[in-house]
Amino acid sequence: MASIFETFKQRAEAVSAEVHRFPRKRAALNFIVQRLQEAGVANSPQSYAVWADCPFLEGINKELLVDRVPGLSFEVTRERAAASKVGISQLDWAMANTGSLVQDACPVDRRLVSTLPNIHIAIVETDRLLPDMPAVFSRVRPEQTNYISFITGPSRTADIERVLTIGVHGPEKLVIVFVDDTAKVN
Amino acid sequence: MRKEFRESINTAIHNPNLTGALGRFSEAYRVSREKAYEGIDFEAVRTQIAERKGYAASHLDELAERFAQQAEARGAKVFRTDDPAKVRQYILDLAQQNGVQCIVKSKSMASEEIHLNPFLEKAGIEVRETDLGEWIIQLAGQTPSHMVMPAIHMTKEEVADVFSEQVEAGQTPDIPKLVKFARGKLRTKFLEAGMGITGANIAVAETGSLVIITNEGNARLVTTLPKIHVAIVGIEKLMSDFDDVVPVLTALPRSATAQLLTSYVSIISGPVPNTDGSPKQLHIILMDNRRTEMSHDPKFKQALQCIRCASCLNVCPVFRLVGGHVFGKIYTGGIGTILTAWFDALKSSDEIQSLCIQCGNCTQVCPGKIDIPGLILELRRRLAVEKGQTFAQKAIFSVVNNRRLFHSMLRTASLAQKPLQRNGFIRHLPFFLSDMTEFRSLPAIADVPLRDKFKQVQQPKQKEKAAFYAGCLIDFAYPEMGLAVVKILNKAGIEVLFPEGQTCCGAPARFSGAYEVAAQNASDNIKALLEHNVDTVISACPTCTVALKHDFIANFESLGQTGAVPRARELAAKVVDFSTLVKKLVDEGRLTFKEGQQLGKVTYHDSCHLKRTLNVSQQPRELLSKAGYKISEMYEADMCCGMGGSYSLKLPEISAPILERKLTNIKETGAQMVVMDCPGCVMQIRGGMDKDGARIKVEHTAQRLVDQLK
């Protein structure tokens, strides 16, 4: 797995994504909390954070989490997402050869948290790392979901004088968090 | 050519922002594209795309039906129509029925093709483009100048002015700030819009899926926030199987923007939940607008293999000078010329087709394997048939078709030019002809053409004989190149014949769309060159070689003169270009170079037809190196010199700056000599060097090799 992860990391960083990897869920969670605090997430409009429901949250006490990060919400509405600084979601697969993340994005909360806030924190289980597009399409097909999303780095444009500028309509920062062992919190 | 068209070219060429931005981009693109394709077998990928898109183009009807069934089974509404007016009306009705007041759009060329925005705005609906470049030009009241980078012609200062005037005063030309400003303003629109309109990069029949790619993320918002999603899909976007998505997504981002993948790819295969939990209304409009008709045209069907990456624009020596606006309002560049001829009208391509210099750069990078220059020639031919040729063209070609008259006129011209000529150049021509000598001198027509000099050449009698096809330039302007070829072949023990009946290869007529004239030239040459029963026909002009080897056959075929094809093939099999033949003779040990020669530094210019049609580029370099020259490669060695046959006469305003780049690249090598295989390029580059005053010799490879062989 080491080399495929290195490929992913190199490709994703080449398109301005951050890539982090944690052996255990607890460490990953602490990292996310720290990033939310650093981003200045608070209980006031434009400073909220929204977290779309995902397997990573299983076994995690959400109330305790909100105590640690006031302004964090697990109820993702359009208004709340639009007033959030950070969105968090779990992605289904990572695709190494282009440094991309792939998701069944049919549930709307998954799209809201990864489009409207400035920062998107994307959690992926390390064993969901696949080499390339054919491998991805052997696991997710349109027959299973009406919306498949590929995300490769943050939102970008070069429409003015061809100068690369990060963060147009989508997030200006993509923080990818790999978790090796998701079995238990502690 | 209308005065307005010429003016639009001149305005573009003299717009330093435009030519600067496009020039820098095309230079960077070449490198970054190559890097993006590292580890990918481009030929394999594009063969797959051409095959799958080609299949789709032959089964449009079937695929449209299958797509509609699948998408409807999953809850989408599919509307299929041939008529752009019905597309517009469908969307307006839908908007009005649902009380939509504001529409957000992600980029859709199909919607631009049918002028959707003004139609909806007239009905009182606000329509907002959300792709940054598209929004800028929408605010500025302009049209896209590039298919992928619509506002590439504008500076940040101009963008700031547009924002200040149209949206909110006080914007400064700071790119990150301008982008943030756009984000803020358009965010409000996303949130209030009742309808989102997108295009689609691929529509998969098997699964009823739409594949939409963006970098900014606007398509994700357009398909998520409004309660209605309308996708306008040109039916050429249909592909049969879901697996067909892979090669297109492999090539499209790499070819378009040199990315491994765009930031976002969305694959939508049915209605998704809205933010209030209700199911989204998904309407998919399959728009024909002459695409089916195009698929029935044996020549133009292949244009439906286009995946709209615009790489043909990015490598085009003409596009990088004039940009998109010269081409028209929607589809630009080489492929744009073809699409405009079909989706708008053939006559709309009348002027823009003349912009193609036929260098073939685009054929090397097209992921759909479309022969863009070939199709543009076909447009030229159809236009010539439709409107007939101008009097002047007719007069010229009737002369070219009468060999004796043509040749006697050239002889007369050789005398008539005397007062204008000095040191073998004509530097100034009077009156309207002066454009021809403004940026480069022209070669004087030789006192004695090759066909007459040839009779004086003493050749040892040999068993092995080859026929020499001179072509007009070597025959009448540069006979010394022909004599060099003869001498070299003699050294290899080959006797050279000069079939008297040979005449113009027909390329000028073909490139003007006058295929009948070209076919007559072909017949005359086939007769002359097959008469002597030789195995080899050698030409030292790549354009002529291509004519003899490929175009004669193609010409007869497209005119339906199939009876003439076998003899054309017989000739084609014997034809070989100078460097390929000489390389072969050297490899066989029939020609040997003098040993230990150190002849100094030269640089080599690849001629378009030699490199890209005949696939010859290493042979001349190897021969020159073996002769004792040290080759110092110039930047963009295989970029067109701007000659393009009569192109340099028709569009000197474009030919001149292309030549200027070439001269600069040659000079920057520090070599005192530039060598090439094409007498046309010699004419252009030597003439340019003469006007420029640079003391750099411009020579045909044959002349450089002749004295270095034993």
What does this structure look like?
In chain A, 28% of the residues lie in helices and 30% in strands. By secondary structure, chain A is of the alpha/beta class. In chain A, a hairpin with a 7-residue loop joins strand 10 (156-157) and strand 11. With 710 residues, chain B is an alpha/beta fold. Chain B contains 35 helices and 21 strands. In chain B, the strands form 5 sheets. In chain B, strands 1-10-7-4-2-3 form a 6-stranded parallel β-sheet, sandwiched between helices. Chain B has a 4-stranded mixed β-sheet with strand order 8-5-6-9. Chain B has a 4-stranded parallel β-sheet with strand order 15-14-16-17. Chain B starts with a helix and ends in a 5-residue tail after the last helix. The chains are: A alpha/beta (186), B alpha/beta (710). At the A-B interface, helix 5, helix 6, strand 9 and strand 10 of A face helix 2, helix 8, helix 10, helix 11 and helix 12 of B.
For the biggest β-sheet of chain B, the strand order reads 1-10-7-4-2-3
Trace the largest sheet of chain A across and list its strands. 1-12-7-4-2-3
What structural class should be given to the helix and strand makeup of chain B?
alpha/beta
CATH class membership of the domain at 42-292 in chain B: Alpha Beta
The CATH level-2 architecture of chain A is identified as 3-Layer(aba) Sandwich
